[in-house]
Amino acid sequence: MTATSAMSSSRVSDTAGLNDLFTHLLQYAIFAPSEHNSQPWLFRICDGSLELIADRTRGLPVVDPHDRAMTISCGAALDHLILAARNIGQEVSVDLCPDPSNDDLLARVRLDGYAVPSSAEEAMFAAIPERRTTRARFLPKALPKDVSDQCMEIAESYGIELTLIKDSARRGDIARLITRADRMQLSSLRFRRELASWVHARRDTSRDGMSRQGLSMAEVMSPRGSLVVRTFDAGDGVAAATKEEICEGSPTLAVVSTPTDVVMDWLTTGRALSRLLLTLTAAGATASFLNPPLEIRELRPRLRNVLHCRGVPQLLMRFGYGPKVEPTMRRELSEFLIP
Ligand SMILES: Cc1cc2nc3c(=O)[nH]c(=O)nc-3n(C[C@H](O)[C@H](O)[C@H](O)COP(=O)(O)O)c2cc1C
Asked: Whose CA is nearest to atom 3 of ligand 1?
């Protein structure tokens, strides 16, 4: 669909035209990242608007008991959709959490006139199908200043704090927390079972989770197997498990923090996350997540202390340059659309 055809169909504003347009935009929304590739979003087209709904049946009660990561993922899907709309010249207006009596309804989106995407937005949009979570050792190469600056500008425009950590002593402190969190999670049978249920081979047919890693359920249930999925491959299929391995393979650590810790902060984090990851992709860089210290209640304040940040940490990531990796599966669009 081109900008011109989209604009003329929105002028007609008939229901069929709007449905087609929203369906076109959703093809991009569902490329968004989500924890364990759980794809926890649903969409409903109704009364000329599109609703984004949290699919709580896809929750992760062990690592994400309050649906924080789920909401972040939905925020990322929302931003992918906005970029797709602007790319075809459609402005959107977004109402976040529009119905106080319905916690699942995270956003209502309406098409709202013409938009001219910026060149940065065009680059981010083009990066949507190319973006990957890269669980591999990164090259010992710093992000160029202009890319770091763009990331900082994105954070600022969303009112969140982005801390980029390049010096090895601070990376070491954080890596120590990561290994501690890993040990705590891996010692939990409940944690390993939840993770394994999203990674086993039959996920090939459900087109969610992370089965392409080629690990059997039994392998993931082993502490070492779980780690491969949660941190990154330090080489020869061996997971980064020590402070040194994590530091060596992660030249830049990145932490996103928000002023408070409520649903709006999580949605904003997701929207900014989408832009950060797509900006990296457009610049030939990549990222992956090292979230375990954020998933253990008592370790979250410790990360804040190590960072000396004012806000509440929401995401811990690695930014850098890594090998090209295969895309993760997505379910069919029809599975996300509810009547
Ligand atoms: C909020 C959130 C938390 C995540 N946490 C982790 C993590 O701790 N470890 C990890 O390896 N991947 C993590 N991921 C990445 C997902 O597993 C990844 O997005 C998913 O498998 C889809 O793959 P893709 O990003 O390559 O499309 C997280 C993603 C999101 C959005």
From this structure: 35
Torsion region of 50: left, alpha or beta (phi above 0 gives left; psi -120 to 50 gives alpha): beta
Do residues 292 and 239 make contact, with C-beta atoms less than 8 angstroms apart? no
Residue 62 shares a structural domain with residue 197: no
Which residue type is seen at 255? V
Residue 291 is assigned to a structural domain of this protein: yes
Q: Which of 97, 129, 161 is the last residue of a domain?
A: 129
The answer as to whether 187 is a domain residue is yes
| Local confidence pLDDT in tens for the 339 residues of the chain | 544 444 444 443 577 788 899 999 999 999 999 999 999 999 999 989 999 999 999 999 999 999 999 999 999 999 999 999 999 999 999 999 999 999 999 999 999 999 999 999 999 999 999 999 999 999 999 999 999 999 999 999 999 999 999 999 999 999 999 999 988 998 899 998 898 888 866 667 888 988 655 556 666 667 666 666 677 777 766 677 788 888 999 999 999 999 999 999 999 999 999 999 999 999 999 999 999 999 999 999 899 988 888 899 999 999 999 999 989 999 999 999 999
Domain tally, the chain: 2
Question: Atom of ligand 1 at shortest distance to CA of 291?
Answer: 8
What residues flank ligand 1, with Cβ below 6 Å?
A: 33-37, 69, 72-73, 76, 132-133, 135, 210, 230, 288-289, 291, 328
Residues 116 and 188 in one domain: no
- Domain's final residue, options 73, 99, 129: 129
Give distance in angstroms: CA of 76 to centre of ligand 1: 12
Residue 37 φ/ψ region, left for φ over 0, alpha for ψ in the -120 to 50 degree band, beta for the rest: left
C-beta separation of 149 from 189 below 8 A: no
Q: 336 CA distance to ligand 1 centroid (A)?
A: 19
Atom of ligand 1 nearest to the CA of 295: 8
Amino acid code (one letter) for 130? E
Domain that holds residue 193: 145-320
Helix (H) / strand (E) element for 49: namely strand 49-54
CATH number where 172 lies: 3.40.109.10
